[in-house]
Design brief:
Layout: E1 2-7, H1 14-23, E2 27-30, H2 31-40, H3 44-50, E3 55-56, E4 59-60, H4 62-71, H5 75-100, E5 105-109, E6 124-129, H6 132-140, H7 147-156, H8 160-166, E7 169-172, H9 177-191, H10 198-203
Parallel strand pairs: 1-5, 1-6, 2-5, 6-7
Antiparallel strand pairs: 3-4
Length: 206
């Protein structure tokens, strides 16, 4: 089974790419969705301890946590130390389940893929990319997004140019959606010819 990473900076179109791959029958792990679930479950006690007042009976209050992180950017490291191991556990479970079901390709949709070194454990990486102006316009249309918050997010993400340089495949989302989907179809065809090594080497022994 091929283990493929899907990543891209904020507002580049990664969610669109993930949804399309899933529609083509590819098993896709959504790291953002996993984090949302972890915030409601196993991460709550540790996050409350690290960021007092950031949780309630129903889980982590993301708005309160975001405000705390804007006041103290060093808190990102504390948060990542709590969350990343829990996400990794779910990634392992996802990949093992996909392999057991006979999947030919499994995709890990992870925003901070390169930043966390996950690329070293993958057979290939797909990067979704767009011009910086288009990225900024899309990002600022999101509810609650401000220029200050966007700059803080971008500061934590590897520059798009570097991601493109490291990628095995790049999806350009500047044009109409159909063009991006055509690129994804071509990538899926190319992946069918790649050797699968990462699962046995880096994931199944865990």
């Amino acid at each position: 089974m091929l283990v493929v990473g899907l990543t891209g900076s904020i507002a580049m179109g990664k969610s669109m790419a993930a949804a399309y791959l899933a529609s083509r029958g590819v098993s896709v792990f959504d790291a953002d969705a996993a984090v949302h679930d972890i915030y409601r479950k196993e991460a709550m006690p540790a996050i409350e301890s690290a960021f007092p007042g950031s949780t309630s009976a129903v889980g982590v209050d993301r708005a309160v946590l975001s405000e705390a992180l804007q006041r103290d950017p060093a808190g990102f490291k504390r948060l990542e130390a709590i969350v990343h191991p829990l996400v990794r556990y779910r990634e392992v479970a996802f990949l093992r389940e996909a392999a057991a079901s006979g999947a030919r390709i499994a995709v890990l949709d992870v925003p901070l893929l390169y930043e966390t070194g996950l690329d070293a454990t993958l057979d290939a990486v797909i990067v979704v990319s767009a011009h910086s102006q288009a990225q900024r316009e899309r990002a600022l249309m999101r509810p609650g997004m401000t220029s200050e918050k966007l700059e803080q997010i971008l500061a934590r993400q590897m520059p798009d140019e570097e991601k493109r340089r490291r990628a095995h495949f790049v999806v350009d989302t500047n044009g109409p959606p159909g063009r991006s989907l055509h690129q994804l179809d071509a990538i899926l065809a190319a992946l069918n010819g790649r050797p699968a090594r990462a699962f046995q080497q880096d994931w199944s022994p865990l």
